[in-house]
Write a structure and sequence with these properties.
nine-stranded antiparallel beta sheet, five-stranded antiparallel beta sheet, Uridine Diphospho-n-acetylenolpyruvylglucosamine Reductase, domain 3, Alpha-Beta Plaits, globular, 2 domains, 22% helix, L-gulono-1,4-lactone dehydrogenase activity, FAD-bd_PCMH-like_sf, alpha+beta, Oxid_FAD_bind_N
Length: 416
Amino acid sequence: MRTETSLREAPGSTWARSYDYTARELVRPRSVEDVRDLVLREPRLRALGSRHSFTDLADTSGVLVSLEGLSGPPTLDGDVVRVPGGMRYGELAAWLQQRGRALPNLASLPHISVAGAVATGTHGSGVGNGSLATSVTALEIVDGRGDLVRVETGSPDFAGAVVGIGALGIVTHLELLTSPTYQIAQTVHEGLTYVDLREHLTEILAAAYSVSIFTRWGDEPDGSVGRVWVKSRSTTPKIPGTVLATEPRHVVPGLDPAPCTEQLGVPGPWHERLPHFRLEFQPSVGAELQSEYLVPLERAQEAVDAVRSLADRVQPLLQVGEIRAVAADELWLSPAYGTDTLALHFTWNADPVGVGALLPDLEQRLPEGTRPHWGKLFAAPDPGATFPRWDDFKDLVRRFDPDRRFWNAWLARVLG
């Protein structure tokens, strides 16, 4: 076995301090060979991304493996960029922009790692935009045997491995399809009423390249229910019943808008407008919890009415909610598998008891076919009922990790 160059430290907590990791230690390997050595030596380990989850999803009884120190910059070969798994999207986006390239979409936070976001099905918004994972053309994974396995488009395991929730191994590199760079202008539309939200929901979500509706689900003092953030590649659309904001806004009403990306319709590079937050600032609010549910788009009105019916319980716990659209894909564990979806996101106060008591009731009221975001809080989904390829994925886990090196308490609860 080669001489190890990994760095070791205490494991710490998630970015919002919602969960303290119980792993024995955190290791930062410097090379793929270091990762392979760790897998061969450790009976239990788990890949840790940029800590932008809220649960024990990435925890282990053994060793956490951070890829932040994995050496090597991205490389561009035609339209495809090869990326170290631990690289953050904000850093990758700036690197691509310098070379005249772009990704089709970005999540709200540019702070998240590429491997972690892909593994959990993380997404941005837009009725024509798939999740971040839909840009992936290949993965390089150190599996449970310590082998470096390449899985690429067209291979039998590809659709099951991309959104892999960390169960198949440690993703050291990914390859993503890029496009020529483009400009985006962002505007905020205020005064949305619940009547317009419900009656024009799909129209609003399809009004521009990327659209987010921010709401606290109950009526505000002015009679509105929220604001619409529009990210357009062309003319700014009209949103029913709203007026354009004349000053920059934060996604949480009343907070300083400085951490948010530029608004007021000023065009700029894609990577400086598609996220809601700037890379150089603290992501989101900080002290918070998050949940998100993805509902078949055809049942959007039913889902909105379900949350609205709980507004008196949701509002006291909520900092802000967000409604987005995500295009269908064919990735087995993607929450958008096989269907266009409505994404209902909740940024909660840091109240685990209150949120924990609400989530079962909220999930019970949401339409059949609702799926959770894997990296956020949820109560009791039935993956076997909502993910048609669930049993196939479990077979894939057995093949990639026969000794359950990457198994943890979260997987035991979810996979069964």
